[in-house]
Amino acid sequence: MEGTLNMIGLGLAAIGPGIGIGLIFAAFVSGVARQPEAEGKLRSIAILGFVLAEQLFIIGVALAFVL
């Protein structure tokens, strides 16, 4: 039963980064729609935000398999 509970926790832990990534790219699309000339700068910031949000999920995966 312990392994099953870990996977349920992993699924719940995926909600936070999923919402965060959605908000990051929604802001990116909105920013590019308002100022297309700033796309390059906004893209690098959006990718950095994506990487930081995705790290939360990777840590959650590691903890789910370790515990």
From TrEMBL:
Pfam family, one: ATP-synt_C
Membrane-related topology note: Multi-pass membrane protein
First-listed, main subcellular location of the protein, grouped into a coarse class: membrane
Subcellular location: Cell membrane; Membrane
Annotated TM spans: 12-33, 45-66
Cellular-component GO terms for this entry: plasma membrane; proton-transporting ATP synthase complex; proton-transporting two-sector ATPase complex, proton-transporting domain
Protein name: ATP synthase subunit c
Upper classification of the organism: Bacteria, Bacillati, Actinomycetota, Actinomycetes, Propionibacteriales
